[in-house]
């Protein structure tokens, strides 16, 4: 099976500009391609994960990836998939986020000996002269055509700022610069980036008379059509300090039955034959498939040791075992307790990250979904003493799948 055939079989490919050309380059290791990452937070998240896996696959086949960090585009903000304008970030915040991205990307991509590049579009975007840009680049863009782009259409009713309207031009300019500086002949990205990517291929054709190509990858959606990688407490991050390896493992262990095989194909490096075999599994066998998915992805992001710990901890909890060694933990301090040395259960749930608000904590308790060391608690005024929480603490549980060991100093 060729690289291209595998990408198709895994369901990774959404749209392409010229399938025959892209297939030939990818299969023969001739592609120098880029994927852009705007530093909107201090960690990559599950939404970036599929792009990183694609880069890794293509690099293994001899192609050369360029990770483009958006130090310049991050100053503007991508309107794609947004119902409102992104919060403006300072240069210092953007630089901090970029530094965090660099460390995480190196886990996936081999940047040694020029096998891959990591570049920052601030190097060319921040020094542009506005009038020169209008004359050299703006003349090649039709406003009428830009307004038909999906990323703009969905914002027209609520309001699209001129700031964001420029984003397509900036992303297109990135492709143009990467083509000239590094011979980058392809751009890959999420399916919501299609219009922006076509802008880049068109700019290269108009300015240089050369062909460049674009391919979008399938967005990571669940069976209900919603983006995966979100929990009640927010995004699922690749940084272990923001989402622990245990919670990362648990996220994938708990995916819906309808999504497990699709995630296997899109995200893991397991052979397709093995995945096709798992696609025939039913009932309790699907739990085994989910374990495999969770282990493989945790191993990719956090390494084998953390993946084993997370798996052991999860198995102990699912089997009702008392092993809390690998469970996520929350340490309470003196300030968390009232004068009488107690803490109420709702506050404990919030501190442990098991609920986002007090009202949700109250509902969870009233509905019988909260327990302490296996004992169900339905009293919303229930309190726990500091003495009870010293030492190993207690296992606080919400629902069947969310656990946290809470202890006091």
Domain tally:
3
**Mean pLDDT, rounded to whole units?**
87
Q: What's the number of helices? A: 19
| CATH secondary-structure class of the largest domain | Alpha Beta
Explained architecture:
With about 400 residues, the protein is of the alpha/beta class. The protein has three domains: about 1-220, Rossmann fold (3-Layer(aba) Sandwich), CATH 3.40.50; about 230-315, Tyrosyl-Transfer RNA Synthetase, CATH 1.10.240.10; about 325-405, RNA-binding S4 domain (Structural Genomics Hypothetical 15.5 Kd Protein In mrcA-pckA Intergenic Region, Chain A, Roll). It has 19 helices and 15 strands. Strands 1-6-5-2-3-4 form a six-stranded mixed sheet, sandwiched between helices. Strand 11 (about 370) and strand 12 (about 375) form a beta hairpin. The chain is globular, with a radius of gyration of 24 Å. The termini are far apart. The mean pLDDT is about 85. Belongs to the class-I aminoacyl-tRNA synthetase family. TyrS type 1 subfamily. It is found in: Cytoplasm. This is Tyrosine--tRNA ligase. Its main location: cytoplasm. One of its GO terms (molecular function) is protein homodimerization activity.
Features:
alpha/beta, about 400 residues, Tyrosyl-Transfer RNA Synthetase, 6-stranded mixed β-sheet, globular, 5-stranded mixed β-sheet, Structural Genomics Hypothetical 15.5 Kd Protein In mrcA-pckA Intergenic Region, Chain A, Rossmann fold
């Amino acid at each position: 099976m060729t690289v291209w055939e595998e990408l198709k079989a895994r369901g990774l490919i959404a749209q392409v500009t010229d399938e025959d050309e892209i297939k030939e380059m990818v299969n023969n290791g001739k592609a120098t391609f880029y994927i852009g990452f705007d530093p909107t937070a201090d960690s990559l998240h599950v939404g970036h994960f599929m792009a990183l896996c694609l880069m890794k696959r293509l690099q293994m086949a001899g192609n050369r990836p360029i990770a483009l960090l958006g130090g310049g585009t991050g100053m503007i903000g991508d309107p794609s998939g947004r119902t409102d304008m992104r919060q403006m970030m300072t240069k210092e915040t953007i630089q901090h986020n970029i530094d965090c991205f660099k460390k995480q990307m190196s886990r996936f991509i081999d940047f040694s000996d020029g096998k891959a590049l990591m570049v920052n579009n601030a190097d060319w975007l921040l020094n542009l002269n506005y009038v020169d840009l209008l004359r050299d680049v703006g003349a090649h863009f039709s406003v009428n055509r830009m307004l038909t782009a999906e990323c703009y259409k969905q914002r027209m009713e609520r309001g699209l700022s001129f700031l964001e309207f420029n984003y397509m031009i900036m992303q297109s300019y990135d492709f143009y610069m990467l083509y000239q500086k590094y011979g980058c002949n392809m751009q890959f990205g999420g399916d919501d980036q299609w219009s922006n990517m076509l802008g880049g291929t068109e700019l290269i054709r108009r300015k240089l008379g050369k062909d460049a190509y674009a391919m979008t990858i399938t967005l990571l959606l669940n069976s209900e059509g919603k983006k995966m990688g979100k929990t009640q407490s927010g995004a699922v991050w690749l940084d272990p300090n923001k989402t622990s390896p245990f919670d990362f493992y648990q996220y994938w262990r708990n995916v819906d039955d309808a999504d497990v095989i699709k995630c296997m194909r899109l995200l893991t490096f397991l052979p397709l034959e093995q995945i096709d075999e798992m696609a025939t599994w039913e009932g309790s066998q699907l739990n085994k498939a989910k374990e495999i998915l969770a282990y493989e992805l945790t191993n990719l992001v956090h390494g084998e040791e953390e993946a084993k710990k997370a798996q052991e901890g999860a198995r102990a909890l699912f089997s009702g075992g008392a092993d809390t060694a690998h469970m996520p933990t929350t340490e309470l301090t003196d300030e968390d307790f009232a004068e009488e040395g107690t803490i109420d259960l709702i506050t404990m749930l919030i501190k442990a990250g098991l609920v986002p608000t007090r009202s949700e904590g109250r509902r969870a308790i009233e509905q019988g979904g909260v327990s302490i060391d296996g004992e169900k608690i339905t009293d919303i005024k229930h309190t726990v003493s500091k003495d009870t929480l010293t030492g190993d603490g207690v296992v606080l549980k919400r629902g069947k799948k969310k656990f946290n060991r809470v202890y006091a100093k």
